[in-house]
Automatic annotation (TrEMBL):
This is Aldose 1-epimerase. GO terms for cellular component: cytoplasm. CDD domains: galactose_mutarotase_like. GO terms for molecular function: aldose 1-epimerase activity; carbohydrate binding. Coiled coil: none annotated. It comes from the Bacteria. The active site is at H179 (proton donor), E313 (proton acceptor). It comes from Marinilactibacillus piezotolerans. The keyword Isomerase applies. Gene3D superfamilies: 2.70.98.10. Belongs to the aldose epimerase family. Its EC number is 5.1.3.3.
Length: 349
C-alpha cells in the first residue's frame, strides 16, 4: 500500500496535510485532520478511467466558512436532537442548539470543526489514517470529557473501513457518522438521480416539523421509500410522496434489517459501472440526496447542484435519546465505544 501526503491548507496557523492511501488496484482514499474529512475517493470505472466519486469542498477556507459536512466525521451526535435536550437520571441536559432550536450534527463546534491528531499505519493488506481528538466536558453542552479515535482503513479488497473507538469520564451521548456523499459518475456536474439503490430495509423514519423524526418507523413496502429491490434513485426523489416533497428528496433514516458483515446497501451507476456496497454495525442509514444547490461556495467553478451527491450515513437512528426503541446512544465511563462501517468499491462488468 502507498501512503502519500500533500499540503492542503492552514487552520488557526497550523498546516493541514492531506493524507492519501492507495492500494494495488489503483483505488485511493484521501483525508485531512480538519474534521477527519474525507477529501477524495478515487476509483476506476468499467473502462479503467479513474475519478473522484465523492462530493468535496476544494478549499479548507470554504470548509471552515460554510461547514457543508461533505465527507466529515459528525459527532458527538449525528442528526438532530429535539430542542437540544435530553433527560438522564431524571435530570434534563440542555445542549447548545444550532438549527431552528435543535442541535444538528453535534452542535456549533461539532467534531467536524476540530483539528484532529493524525498518524498512519501501513500493513501488508491495508493502510490506515488514524485520527484522534478530545472533546472537553461542556463543549456543545455535552457532559463528559470524550476521547475519540476514527481509523480510515483502505484494504487490498477495495474496502474503506471506518472504525470508531471512544471513551468518556462521565455519562454522555455518542452517535457518530461519516457524512460522505457519493456520485459514482465521477462528475459532480451530473446528478445522482440515475444511480440505483438497494437497501436491506423495510421501514423508514418519518420526518415532521423542523425535519425532526416523528418517532414513527413506517413500513416502506410499495412506497417511494421501498428499496428492497434495486431501483433508480429518481423514482423516490421525484415522487409525489408528501414525505419526499416536504424535503425535496430523501433526508430520511432507513432501519437496517441485518448488522455486521451483511451487505445492507448497494449503490450503483450503470454508465460508469461503479458500485459501492455498505455494511455496518449500526441500526440505520440516513440517506440524504443533497436536496438544494449549495451556492455559498464553488466546486470546479460552479455551485454544487441539487442532487449532486447521495449520502449513506450509517448511525443509530436520529434523535434516539428522545425516541424510545430507536436505540441507545449513551456512553458510560466504564464503557469503550466501538463501531465499524465498511464500504466496498467494485465495477459491474
Ligand atoms: C441537514 C440534514 C441532512 C444533511 C444536511 C447537511 O439538512 O437534515 O441530512 O445532514 O444537514
Amino acid at each position: 500500500m502507498d501512503i502519500t501526503t500533500k499540503f492542503f491548507g492552514m487552520f488557526q496557523n497550523q498546516e493541514v496535510i492531506e493524507y492519501t492511501l492507495t492500494n494495488s488496484n489503483g483505488i485511493s482514499l484521501s483525508a485531512i485532520p480538519y474534521g477527519a474529512i474525507v477529501t477524495k475517493i478515487v476509483t476506476p470505472d468499467k473502462n479503467g478511467e479513474k475519478a473522484n466519486i465523492t462530493l468535496n469542498v476544494e478549499s479548507l477556507e470554504d470548509m471552515v466558512a460554510h461547514r457543508p459536512f461533505y465527507g466529515a466525521t459528525i459527532g458527538r451526535v449525528a442528526g438532530r436532537i429535539t430542542d437540544g435536550q435530553y433527560i438522564v437520571e431524571g435530570q434534563q441536559v440542555q445542549l447548545d442548539v444550532n438549527e431552528k432550536g435543535n442541535q444538528l450534527h453535534g452542535g456549533p463546534v461539532g467534531l467536524d470543526t476540530k483539528l484532529w491528531k493524525v498518524k498512519t499505519k501501513n500493513e501488508e493488506d491495508h493502510a490506515s489514517i488514524i485520527f484522534s481528538c478530545k472533546s472537553l466536558a461542556g463543549e456543545n453542552g455535552y457532559p463528559g470529557n470524550l476521547e475519540v479515535e476514527v481509523e480510515y482503513r483502505l484494504t487490498e479488497k477495495n474496502e474503506w473501513k471506518i472504525l470508531y473507538t471512544a471513551h468518556t469520564d462521565a455519562t454522555t451521548l455518542f452517535n457518530p457518522t461519516n457524512h460522505i456523499y457519493f456520485n459514482l459518475t465521477g462528475d459532480i456536474k451530473q446528478t445522482i438521480l440515475n444511480h440505483k439503490l438497494q437497501l436491506s430495509s423495510s421501514k423508514y423514519g418519518m420526518l415532521g416539523d423542523r425535519n425532526l423524526p416523528t418517532g414513527v418507523l413506517k413500513d416502506s413496502s410499495g412506497t417511494a421509500f421501498d428499496f428492497s429491490e434495486s431501483k433508480l434513485v429518481r423514482e423516490a426523489v421525484l415522487s409525489d410522496d408528501p414525505q419526499i416533497k416536504s424535503v425535496s428528496g430523501l433526508d430520511h433514516p432507513f432501519v437496517l434489517e441485518q448488522k455486521g458483515e451483511a451487505v445492507q446497501a448497494v449503490l450503483s451507476e450503470e454508465k460508469s459501472g461503479r458500485q459501492v456496497i455498505m455494511s455496518t454495525e449500526e441500526n440505520s442509514v440516513v440517506i440524504f440526496t443533497h436536496n438544494k444547490e449549495m451556492d455559498a461556495f464553488q466546486i470546479q467553478g460552479e455551485p454544487a447542484k441539487q442532487y449532486a451527491g447521495i449520502t449513506l450515513e450509517a448511525q443509530t437512528l436520529p434523535d434516539a435519546v428522545n425516541q424510545s426503541k430507536f436505540g441507545n446512544i449513551f456512553l458510560q465511563p466504564e464503557q469503550t465505544y466501538h463501531s465499524q462501517t465498511m464500504y466496498r468499491f467494485s465495477v459491474l462488468e
